[in-house]
Amino acid sequence: MTLILRQMSMSFCAAALWAATAGLPAPAWAQAANFHPCNSQPSLPMCQHGYGKRIAVQRWGAQPEPLDPDAAANAPLVTRDPAKEIGKLKSSTILVQDMDTSEVLFARNEDAVRPIASITKLMAALTLVKAGLPMDEIITIDASDTRSASELPSRLTAGTKLSRADLLRLALVPSENSAAQALGRTYTGGMAAFVEAMNAEARALGMADSSFAEPSGLSNENQSSARDLVKLLEAISAQPLIQQYTGETSYQAAGQTFRNTNILVGRPQWDILVSKTGTTREAGDCLVMAVKVGQRNLAMVLLNAQGTSGSRFGDAVRLRRVLDSRFASR
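-> structure tokens emitted (330 positions)
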């Protein structure tokens, strides 16, 4: 039986009241009060080794939040109470769809058009791979590539030389913004041509709700809906190179180890085919995955997750519990 959950969006008045109590501008109700990077990327090296906690108060004004217990490595994937799991979901937009049959298994605000943060990098990757540019070409990181609005500084320094394949991996695995910028800058015709090609690819895929302004996802003009992102996941699923890169738990380049921002990648109970995270204040915490559950290939889209650190991953676990219980009962 198809499970559909539709939840009415918060009214503008309620949103303004929430924002006022959080000390935020009224239109920005989706912003997290504590935007410490370890909240959205708990696999970052600085979060693993305590550095993030030491600099938190000085740089971001708050300690990182504790990890959502459902996102922990030992979180079970079974439930006796699916309704309780649904009640704990933190994402404002959710869509789970069978990519083979198009059956919608779970939906919440799936038509809402929102900023998608670094989920944008999946469209950048698809556009780049389909362009057929040489992946072994060496590209030098420019100072302009490292300048961005991100609150997390680039780990790549100007002058670093990496292959296009390296940069694509770094854009997809640790979500390096400077890598995405360098890929766009060195595209045939430059950044403007790359962005136009991204938008042309979106139109070709029938992503009518989507638009792209740059390849990293830092601009709030990079927008899409959950329905459109399922189409993107379906297209990416036909690209073995992108599947390979997004499925890597870590990657070494430029003398550093970069870890996948999706902490579910590599866990034995998860067969993840495609994956990408995204986070900005306006977009909230986002996660898209193509994942195999039983014999089904599912697209899972989670946008604007709020709550404790890793709540988008906790939502993925909660949805797995609900889906597994439903599949088992058939």
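DSSP finds 13 helices and eleven strands in the chain.
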